[in-house]
């Protein structure tokens, strides 16, 4: 029997918890988590041509061009570990990216998308972004509430603030989100794409958000005949 893969995308502003929740969801259903932000940060760390190109854009809180991002995701989704599905974190972020992903999904012809929108009030986003830290060595997000003097739970590396989590850049990223990413909600909600759409209350304790996401995915899986 051919299995229908679990293809999930996470929509939500910076600080909504997309990274953490994508990681948990991907682990739970043994599919890869694909974070375009993490991929770009790795390129920056390696000082690759893409990393050098993307760094200034990321540091300013702006979006890397659609062409570059679509090519990156296209390559990643061509790898065999995505056969059973994927959780995309941070892509798509613009309507052209969403349209390119639709085209890619049609080409794959292996099930549609489950779109999850994580909703968190603005003041809570600011609070989270100012305290958020990631590992300088492996890029893993420190769990919310990690003590100041802790090291990375995964590799023991030093925990640092992201360069784009400073006050000015956070404001710019939220402005960019509103202008370019928020319209995706209407795009997916309208049902124009081959997708199902769920809203998630991201302003709850971590495990409650995870539970709500799992419930939504299970309902979506029944609706779209995904094999979990
Ligand atoms: P994130 O870790 O998802 O907050 O992404 C960090 C930064 O990487 C963003 O502020 C953008 O500069 C860039 N980035 C990540 N994903 C995308 C995307 N899909 N389109 C454009 N830029 C992106």
What this model shows, in words?
With 228 residues, the protein is an alpha/beta fold. It has a single domain (6-121, 166-224), classed as Rossmann fold. It is 48% helix and 14% strand. The strands form 2 sheets. It has a 5-stranded parallel β-sheet with strand order 2-3-1-4-7, sandwiched between helices. The chain has a two-stranded antiparallel ribbon with strand order 5-6. The site of adenosine monophosphate has 17 residues, from helix 2 and helix 3.
Provide the fold topology.
Blueprint: E1 6-11, H1 18-28, E2 33-35, H2 36-46, H3 49-59, H4 66-77, E3 85-89, H5 95-108, E4 113-119, H6 122-131, E5 134-135, E6 159-160, H7 167-181, H8 183-189, E7 195-201, H9 206-224
Bound molecules: adenosine monophosphate (AMP).
For the structure shown, list the relevant keywords.
two-stranded antiparallel ribbon, Rossmann fold, 7 strands, 228 residues, alpha/beta, binds adenosine monophosphate
């Amino acid at each position: 029997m051919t299995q229908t893969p679990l293809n999930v995308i996470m929509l939500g502003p910076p600080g909504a918890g997309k990274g953490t929740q994508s990681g948990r969801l991907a682990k739970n259903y043994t599919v890869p988590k694909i974070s375009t932000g993490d991929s770009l940060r790795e390129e920056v760390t390696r000082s690759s041509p893409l990393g050098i190109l993307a760094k200034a854009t990321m540091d300013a809180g702006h979006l890397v061009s659609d062409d570059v991002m679509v090519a990156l995701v296209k390559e990643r989704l061509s790898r065999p570990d995505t056969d059973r599905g994927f959780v995309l974190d941070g892509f798509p972020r613009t309507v052209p990216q969403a349209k390119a992903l639709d085209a890619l999904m049609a080409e794959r012809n292996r099930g549609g998308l489950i779109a999850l929108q994580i909703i968190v009030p603005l003041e809570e986003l600011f609070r989270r972004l100012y305290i958020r830290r990631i590992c300088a060595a492996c890029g893993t997000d420190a769990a919310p509430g990690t003590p100041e003097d802790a090291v990375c739970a995964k590799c023991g590396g030093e925990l640092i603030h992201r360069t784009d989590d400073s006050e000015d850049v956070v404001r710019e990223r939220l402005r960019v989100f509103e202008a370019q990413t928020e319209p995706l909600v209407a795009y997916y909600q309208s049902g124009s794409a081959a997708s199902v759409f769920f809203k998630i209350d991201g302003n709850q304790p971590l495990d409650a958000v995870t539970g709500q996401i799992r419930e939504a995915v299970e309902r979506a899986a029944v609706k779209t005949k995904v094999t979990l």
